[in-house]
Amino acid sequence: MEVRKTERPDQQTVLSLCQYTLPQILFQQAKELGTKKIAIREKMFGIWQAYHWQDYLNYTRQVALGFFALGLKRGENIGIITDNHPEWLFSELGAQAMGAITINLFTSSIAKELTTMLNRIRAAYVVAQDQEQVDKLLEMKEQLSHVRKVIYVDPTGMRTYTNNPWLMSFKELLDLGTKIDATQPSLFEEELWKGKPEEVALMIMTSGTTGIPKLAMISHRSFTEIARKWVETAPIGIGDNWISITPTAWIVDQMWGMGVSPLTGMSMNFPETPETATEDFREIGPAVIITSSRFWEDLASKIRVKIADAGWMKRKLFALGEKIGGAVVDHQSQREPVPSYLRFLHWLAARLVYRPLLDRVGCAEIRAAVTGGHPISPDVIRFFRAKGLNLKHAYGLTEGGGVFQVQPDGEVKPETVGKPLPRTEIKIAEDQEVLVRTPSCFVGYYQDPEATKKALHDGWLHTGDAGYIDDDGHLLIIGRKEEIMRTKGGEAISSDFIETRLKFSPYIKEAVVWGEARDYITGFINIDFGNVGSWAEDRMIPYTTYTDLSQQPSVEDLILGEVRLVNTQLPKPMRLQKIILLYKLLDADDEELTRTGKVRRKFVHEQYIKLIEAMYSDLKELEVTGKVRYRDGQVGTIETKVRILTVE
Amino acid sequence: MKAFRGQPSVFGCTQPTDRQAELEVKKIFLSFGGVMALYDVDLTVRTGELVSIIGPNGAGKTSLLNCITGYYHPQKGQILFNGEEVTGHHPHEITKKGIGRTYQNIELFPGMTVLANMLLARHLYCDYSIGKAALFSSSVQKQEVHHRQVLEELIDFLEMQPIRKKPVGSLPYGMRKRVELGRALALEPKLLVLDEPFAGMTLEEKEDMVRFLLELNSGWDQTMILVEHDMSIVMSISQRIIVLNFGEKIAEGVPEVIQNHPEVVKAYLGETTRF
Fold it and tell me: Domain segments of chain A: what residues?
């Protein structure tokens, strides 16, 4: 497929930039690229508003001096609770320029979670997105005595709050900075150049599937190093587009916004609102994208559902395209030459089917699409690769500074997570744990030397994942080391392996599989409300809520059919024998998922132990009372009956 | 940047004289055959006020609004807007004078997008010829860009970004009400007349709407007349309330006074009910 020309950043320049801190790199880039290139785009008022590198630096400078005027001292911590907007970058780099350490928190967190985290880091200042976040903080103000000021970004609805001296608008912060700049023009640079690249720049919450999240301290050097790895391996050019859609508290957008973008001159793009993200994604047409596996799973099922609704012609063409693409991918992964007739058909299908389809979902410009975070079904990778989208599996850890393991172009194998990026070493410990040694590695956990000692031995990072290296040197991840189950018969089973295959069904949103020390495998299933909903509507099946829909007999049959299909692809001991369609979606607010969307198995196990036990008894039906926690902290109950379904 | 929201550079930045909205309704009478819809009704609205009109069903609230906006012509009495006589004028003439309104039953074009519906309101400010429009000359271009800017500021204010290009027919009821408010605002009216903007809305939609109206009134100095049945909303946001019953004005005053007014309690809320 033809792609835009890239203007590769000069390796020498990148290398020379690596000796600076992140805000210092921004300073250099503003000197180099100035107003020639666009650094940030944000959609507002229906059009993309652009900021040059010079604007980027100016705003960062104002924020930095604003913080200075407020009394920020070097080494203090700042909490940032913002959505994906330029203000996030300005606040983070601005604070770092003054020697502060930043921590991004999830805007979806409830007040208690935010308070716990802010208490732990003794945050001196908090940058909050809007009224919603400010309200959460005000509610907990008594416990947040160490927070000297809360700076809110969006002034909407804040008219009545203006008398509160604890609060301050982002605009006031900028004005404060401008005022200081006018009287002490050299102050910013003096403070900026005090920074050392080996100092801690920011902290990132690890997902914490077990217990409370730990805070990984990342130095400026970790990020410059990981950014350098990406420049060397991925087709990144100056002015290429990155679209910021994952939460800013997550490593991926941190790595790109703080590391790769300043270092390479890539533009950061911010959607108008979270609801318009899909549309904005298409308008930007990003060149590189790293997202969670869920993004691709959702996209694949959305495409399938849309195609099923499309006309006869489109359906036939799509099916034909699938066949051709699948055949090509098979040849490629076996490293066989693709026959010329197939190459021609593939070329034809690319023009008739793949490109129009990818354009519709905004993926036509993508040069490298990467999925990470959670194991993804090989079927999803195959699905997109068959359409000519360069989707690869990657592997990384917050503690490793981000993604450090990617499948190289030309040797993509759907089930592996590829080879290490430059200057990264991988080895497998005796108990199959994956160990990594890389210069982009984190400094340690915040105020937790014990956990740090456990994770870091002689420079080797213990990932906690079990895996092995295949004959081609590709790494395969089996699953979390602690989540490898052994059935009563002694078979080692990875729950992830089964769950990712289940989740490839467009009708299954989430699956949690059980079987530790049991006779057979069972599972919980969350149906996909949107897709199952439209399936039910097409068949004139009436339903009201999620709970109601999930307990419809015809839906049960539908899901059973999907599970049977998955069972045929699994070795015998891994096959599911009984399932329950859960009456509610697993949710981060109920602590069942982490904020990045991973299942907290131990917690779910405790919460639903009755249901699990029921699947290992002769019960056919069970009455349950479930709890649902709402955003405002209220707890509601659901009373319903669940049926235990047997998969023949 | 989001930090600069709520500071419209086009909309709401007009001179104070452009915001002037002094409405005076003097002793109007309106009857349909033998039915007396309005009987000797007076109403004064000053610039920057948020005045509510309440009353039981059939009290004549919408009739009064229709008289103000030119849909009905009162048989007797006078309506003055900014000192100018507007009695008996047609709706389009009154719109030009600076009175915009929304309707009890939504009056949008369901097949058109939100943007197109709102853009329609801007025809008031288009003064180019068909020929120039066909050629899309630079002056036309400039005007069109300006119109779009006004609309985009309203879309941002009303938080309608995700539905900007959706056909109105596909939107839920509460959203359509919001679009209608947006269209009325696109007229840049001096006086905004709202006929039951909260009817049929969910609690959350009502909360959003209240927020918009308050922000409009206090932030952008928008003068408003509101007809509404939801008492808790009326009492909490109005500066002054007028009560109609069977076409007659029975009370007028600040919410606290109206709440305890014996006539109102008797006529409108039943003998023993208090709120």
Answer: 22-195+236-286, 291-481, 497-646
| B36 domain-assigned | yes
A22-195+236-286 and A291-481 in the same fold: yes
DSSP for A20-37, written as a single string: S-HHHHHHHHHHHHTTTS
The CATH classification of domain A22-195+236-286, taken from the options 3.20.20.380, 3.40.50.980, 3.30.70.1730, 3.40.640.10 = 3.40.50.980
What are the pLDDT digits (tens) for A421-477? 888 888 888 878 889 998 888 999 998 898 898 888 888 999 888 888 888 888 888
Packing angle of the helix pair A220-233, A22-33 (nearest 10 deg): 50
Residues of B in contact with A130 (CB under 8 A): 2
Rounded to an integer, what distance in angstroms lies between the CA atom of residue B38 and that of residue B59?
Answer: 8
The whole-angstrom separation of Cα A569 and Cα A456 is 38
Report, as an integer, the average pLDDT of A337-360. Answer: 92
Pairwise CA distance, residues A15 & A228, whole Å? 8
Quick check: B162 and A275 CB within 8 A?
yes
Dig out the tokens for A401 from the structure.
Answer: 């500074």
Query: Any idea what DSSP says for residue B123?
Result: G
Range of the domain at B130: 2-267
Percentage of chain A exceeding pLDDT 70: 98
Would you say B117 and A13 are in contact if contact means Cβ atoms under 8 Å apart? Answer: no
Element containing residue A187 per DSSP (H, E) = helix A187-192
CATH superfamily, with its number, for domain A497-646? ANL, C-terminal domain (3.30.300.30)
Question: What are the pLDDT digits (tens) for A555-598?
Answer: 999 999 999 988 887 778 888 999 999 998 998 888 888 877 78
Chain B: closest CA distance from residue A625 (Å): 27
Q: Does residue B113 sit within a domain? A: yes
CA gap A523, A495 in Å, rounded: 10
pLDDT of residue A210: 55
Q: What is the pLDDT of residues B221-245, one digit of tens each?
A: 899 999 998 888 999 999 999 999 8
So what's the ipTM on this one? 0.86
Would residue B272 count as lying in a domain? Answer: no
Write the residue in B3, B161, B215 that is nearest to A272 by C-beta.
B161
- Alpha-carbon gap, residue B115 to B130, rounded angstroms: 21
How many domains are there within chain B? 1
pTM over 0.80: yes
Helix, strand, or coil here: A586? coil
Closest Cβ–Cβ partner in B5, B148, B162 for A156: B5
- A492-494 and A484-486: which strand pairing? antiparallel
Strand order in the sheet with A215-219: A167-169, A149-152, A125-128, A77-81, A101-104, A200-205, A215-219, A444-445
The CATH T-level fold of domain A291-481 is Rossmann fold (3.40.50)
User: Is B3's CB within 8 Å of A273's CB?
Assistant: no
Mean pLDDT of chain A: 88
Backbone phi, then psi, for A51, in 5-degree steps? -125, 130
Q: Is A216 exposed, middle or buried (0-12, 13-18, 19+ CB in 10 A)?
A: buried
Return d(Cα B27, Cα B34) in angstroms, integer: 19
CATH no. for residue B38? 3.40.50.300
| Residue B1: band (very low, low, confident or very high) from pLDDT cuts 50, 70, 90 | confident
Chain A residues with CB-CB distance to B211 below 8 A:
157
Instruction: Give the Cα-Cα-Cα angle A550, A554, A556 (nearest 5 degrees).
Output: 50
Residues 6+ apart with CB under 8 A from A620: A643, A644
Give the amino acid at A361: V
Asked if residues A22 and A224 have their Cβ atoms less than 8 Å apart, the reply is yes
Is B6 near chain A, with CB under 8 Å?
A: yes
Q: Is residue B193 part of a domain?
A: yes
Q: Helix (H, G, I), strand (E, B), or coil: what is residue A185?
A: coil
